[in-house]
Amino acid sequence: MNRNTMKIGEIAEVTGLTVKSIRYYELLQLLPEAQRTESGYRLYGQDAVRRLLFIKKAKRMGLSLDEIRDILALHENQQAPCVHVMALMDRKVAEVDGIIEDLRSFRQDLTTLREESAKQLENLPEGSAICSIIERSIHHKGELALAWLEGRQMGKANR
């Protein structure tokens, strides 16, 4: 092993990615297959570090692994990927705008429900009801916004 190569644990530390993620990216061919030592250890060079940091940044922008694969393919085929990235960003902005609108609507629904419920705090639930506030809450509104928020929370937990 020479000084310009790193084992998978070392490259994971340098990039802030998990070993599992790096293996997964290699499996998906987002990262070229690593060289191997005689004992089978993967060895990565600086190109792999750059590639992994690119993938990490692209994911933080909300790009999927398929979208990242397309960008990398354009680059590898000597095509300018930034035009494609701009189109992806336009779609992401429109998606975020929709989520923001859903969140605003959901917030208003929660505020209204809270105000209506404050008047009835002392009322016991009827029949088999547990808490009337939850049971009369909005079912479908805000589902996209909640799914987005849950995804963001999951993403923070996996970092």
Detailed description of the structure:
This protein is mainly α and about 160 residues long. It has 2 domains: about 5-60, Multidrug-efflux Transporter Regulator, Chain: A, Domain 2 (Orthogonal Bundle), CATH 1.10.1660; about 90-155. The chain has 7 helices and 3 strands; from the N terminus they run E-H-H-E-E-H-H-H-H-H. It has helices at about 10-15, 20-25, 45-60, 65-75, 80-120, 130-135, 145-155; strands at about 5, 35, 40-45. Strands 1-3-2 form a 3-stranded antiparallel β-sheet. The protein is elongated. The relative contact order is 0.07.
Which keywords apply here?
Multidrug-efflux Transporter Regulator, Chain: A, Domain 2; elongated; 63% helix; 4% strand; mainly alpha; three-stranded antiparallel beta sheet
